[in-house]
Amino acid sequence: MTILVTGSAGHLGEALMRTLRAQSRWARGIDIKPSAFTDRIGSIGDRDFVRQAMSGISHVIHAATLHKPHVATHGNRDFLDTNVGGTLNLLEEAATAGVSSFVFTSTTSAFGAALTPAEGEPAAWVTEDVLPIARNIYGVTKLAAEGVCELFARKSRLPLVILRTSRFFPESDDDPGIRNGYLAENAHGNELLHRRVDISDVVGAHLLALERAPAIGFGRYIVSATTPFSSGDLAALRRDAPAVVERLFPGAGSLYAERGWKMFPTLDRVYVNERARRELGWLPRYDFRFLLDCLRENREWRSPLALDVGSKGYHDEDFAEGPYPVDQATA
């Protein structure tokens, strides 16, 4: 059994390859960039390359993509060719090869404008049933790729699972307000409440999806750290998030203060992973409670895998606007 991992030089691709190799499982990493975890170099937009890479493959994890930080540096056609055309190439070759399961890495960014409640409205409670409203070409192409995946699951009987992952990158935020107002570690810790997941838990979700896809047939799941909030907290989270956190975790404010951290004043969304936990049997470990326990005991709260993969960035150059400029009008 050989697993094809696309995007093996990226954050998630490397994390998957590290894990599979550590488990002594056969895995083939492909990417447009060379790396210690890339076995074959080429573009998923190249049908011949994809056909050759698919030889002998029984399972596919498709993590390669152009990301939101590329919106300001790549054209619409680049996004279509990679995120949609590349996915189509992989699906067609996977169906021809008769692979046993296909996992597509999507993103919670696909929800787009559905994540922004009107002024005075409660925070959004985001489940798989929320209708996405794409805000940029990244979201458009990820949604289009999801649609092509669903089509192949139905028409070609390809066992397929889509995972909409929340943030797991270690880089500073692309929002200058967050980037300039919070230490990156502080912001990431805050996000475990509602919109972040540790890469180790993301890998776990992908491997479970790969295993369970044949029984599921087709499924779409949000992959985010388990939130401590309930739908009854949404109005209060939009008014005063620190008060809600202190109510649920007495003493959290003091732990933060000791480290010079601060909570976001308000939260506008909460990603809900209940379906993934129930149907995939996924048990994410690295949540906000785990973070507080680590702060209390003065130990590392990020997974060893997250530390091993580290920061990669999204471009080969630095920019005056920040580590990865994003067109704020379409972000």
Automatic annotation (TrEMBL):
<protein>
    <submittedName>
        <fullName>NAD-dependent epimerase</fullName>
    </submittedName>
</protein>
<dbReference type="InterPro" id="IPR001509">
    <property type="entry name" value="Epimerase_deHydtase"/>
</dbReference>
<dbReference type="InterPro" id="IPR050177">
    <property type="entry name" value="Lipid_A_modif_metabolic_enz"/>
</dbReference>
<feature type="domain" description="NAD-dependent epimerase/dehydratase">
    <location>
        <begin position="3"/>
        <end position="212"/>
    </location>
</feature>
<dbReference type="Pfam" id="PF01370">
    <property type="entry name" value="Epimerase"/>
</dbReference>
<dbReference type="InterPro" id="IPR036291">
    <property type="entry name" value="NAD(P)-bd_dom_sf"/>
</dbReference>
